[in-house]
Write a sequence for this structure.
């Protein structure tokens, strides 16, 4: 998750269609990262569990909505068609009884290349360089992690106690994200993962990036809205290049 803060900032942008807000850009970037993650997991599981690999491959097609495709088409019709074809091509590779690892690797690489082009076409460079937009994406991915972990444990994610703790230590955010990863890797109880998010990650994101995330929106899942006008982060005012 920490590495996902560094997004591709290709400057080959198109200017058709409306300009998207920081919240819209963050939501779209989250979708792109989820597709990439599903692709990576499909490759990782191919040798050990072909069934899981196929499921992850199929999940790559489930994140984009018809509206997302429409917005891509507004910016670049060719890319909208190419993305759809590349996703379908990736999934079809896993329909074979014994998918070739080299073939899967090539299809995944093609998908990554198309996604990079789509991001450059769909999102303005200033939004890609915007540190608040990146922080919102991290928050969304944390929410996705909790949602998937609770599902893996056979439970629905419950409500979260509001916590007002804060910290300005960005190194602590990195440690907290690593702690969440370790909790999930170790198959610890869901409450432990939930507590790390509520007590550490959400307050740190709020404090460091001034996101003002409401507790109920802090762990949103796929396609989440980042809240109303009162809780929107001031992404338009914070454009920085970060490592």
């Amino acid at each position: 998750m920490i590495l996902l803060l560094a997004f591709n900032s290709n400057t080959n942008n198109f200017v058709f269609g409306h300009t998207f807000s920081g919240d819209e850009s963050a939501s779209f970037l989250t979708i792109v990262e989820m597709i990439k993650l599903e692709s990576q997991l499909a490759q990782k599981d191919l040798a050990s569990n072909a069934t899981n690999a196929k499921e992850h491959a199929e999940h790559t097609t489930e994140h984009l909505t018809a509206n997302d495709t429409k917005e891509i088409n507004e910016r670049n019709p060719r890319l909208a068609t190419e993305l759809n074809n590349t996703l379908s091509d990736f999934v079809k590779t896993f329909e074979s009884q014994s998918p070739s690892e080299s073939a899967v690797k090539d299809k995944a690489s093609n998908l990554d290349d198309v996604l990079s082009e789509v991001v450059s076409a769909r999102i303005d460079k200033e939004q890609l360089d915007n540190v608040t937009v990146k922080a919102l994406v991290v928050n969304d991915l944390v929410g996705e992690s909790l949602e998937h972990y609770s599902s893996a444990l056979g439970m629905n994610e419950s409500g979260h106690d509001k916590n007002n703790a804060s910290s300005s230590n960005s190194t602590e955010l990195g440690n907290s994200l690593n702690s969440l990863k370790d909790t999930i890797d170790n198959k610890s109880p869901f409450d432990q993962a939930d507590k790390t998010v509520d007590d550490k990650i959400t307050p740190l994101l709020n404090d460091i990036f001034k996101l003002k995330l409401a507790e109920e929106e802090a762990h949103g899942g796929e396609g989440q809205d980042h809240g109303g006008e009162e809780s929107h982060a001031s992404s338009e005012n914070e454009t920085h290049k970060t490592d």
User: Anything to note?
Assistant: Residues 1-18, 157-168, 220-243 have pLDDT under 50 and may be disordered. Residues 45 and 231 are 39 Å apart (CA to CA). The chain has two domains: 20-127, 129-237. The chain has nine helices and no strands.
